[in-house]
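Researcher: I'm preparing a figure for a lab meeting and need a structural model of a single chain. I don't have an experimental structure, so a prediction will have to do for now. The sequence is pasted below. Please return the structure as C-alpha cells so I can convert it later.
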Amino acid sequence: MMKLIAIINVIAWSGFWAFGYLAISASGFSEAQIVTSALLAAAGLFTGIIAYLRLAQAAELSGYAQKSNQMSAADRNRAQQQGSI
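Model: Understood. Here is the structure written out cell by cell.
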C-alpha cells in the first residue's frame, strides 16, 4: 500500500509542476485551457501534499523515520504549571 501511495505522490507532484507551468506560461491558449490546467495543477498540489503527509506518518509509525519531538500532554501541562513554557 505504501508503494502505491508513493507512486501517487510522484504522479501528483509531476502533474502539479507540468500543469502549473502550462497555466503560468500559457501564450496562445484559450481561457478554458488555462483554467483547466490551473485546476489540474491544484488537484496535483493537494493530492501530492496529502500523499506526502501519509507517507511521513507511515514512516514514523513503522519506525523507518524518527518520531517527532512533541511533548506528551502530561509533560506539557506540567511544564505550563511550572511556568517554563
